[in-house]
Amino acid sequence: VLPAGAETLLVVRKTGNAVDFIDPGSGLRLASVPTGNAPHEISVSPDGRRAVVSNYGTREQPGSTVSIVDLEQPQEIRRIDLAPHSRPHGVAWYASDRIAVTAEGSRHLLVLDPEAGRIVGAIETAQETSHMVVVSADARRAYVTSIGSGTTTAIDLVEGRKLADVSTGAGSEALALTPDGHELWVAARADGSIAIVDTA
């Protein structure tokens, strides 16, 4: 992840339990911040001052935390416990006070308040391996891909409820919204295809 307007690349090291701050020009590591066990994904806050890291864990030791990292003075400033939810993966810091994170272990999308350090919403996807998440620019809707179910779930973030599951192909994983928010593109790894979903 390269924060907007920044000249530092953030690299999550799963086996190193850390986030590295890299100078992309020279490749030099400027700093390294320890996180929870086996971190997987990272998202930068809208103001570019912090980042959230999902501590997914391992097969033997599933994770159940996310780390909040200060990007100005590189350090972990908070670790949020998500129990009983486990295996946090996809993250989107979509508003100053809201973070969306998938929990594969419990088949939920969680909404976190980073300042309070707690879960403020939990919406069940009821899909297998709910993996990645993207949030619309107006912060009203989230979309979650589920690898095991081959689906993408639309979630109303305002009302905190699931809207629908859309079949998007076996191994549905990577996803992106078009800038106008009218289309959602989903890469289905096992199918070797891309599904284009009309968000309306």
Task: Put the structure in a nutshell.
The chain is an all-beta fold. Helices cover 0% and strands 58% of the residues.
Describe the structure.
With 200 residues, the chain is mostly beta strands. The chain contains no helices and 18 strands. The chain has strands at 9-13, 18-22, 29-34, 39-44, 50-57, 62-70, 75-81, 88-95, 98-103, 108-113, 118-124, 130-135, 141-146, 151-156, 161-167, 172-177, 183-188, 193-198. The strands form 5 sheets. The chain has a 4-stranded antiparallel sheet with strand order 4-5-6-7, with no helix packed on it. Strand 17 and strand 18 form a beta hairpin. The radius of gyration is 16 Å and the shape is globular. The model has no long low-confidence stretch (mean pLDDT 96).
Please tally the helical runs, counting DSSP H or I stretches of 4 or more residues: 0
By helix and strand content, what is the structural category? mainly beta
- Strand count: 18
Strand order in the sheet with the most strands = 4-5-6-7
Shape: globular
As a percent range, the share of helical residues equals: under 10%
The string of secondary-structure elements, in order, is: EEEEEEEEEEEEEEEEEE
Overall pLDDT metric: 96
- Intertermini distance: 29 Å
The radius of gyration computed from the alpha-carbon positions, rounded to a whole number of angstroms, is 16 Å
Largest sheet: 4 strands, antiparallel
How much of the residues is beta strand, in percent? over 45%
Which spans of ≥5 residues are poorly predicted at pLDDT below 50? none
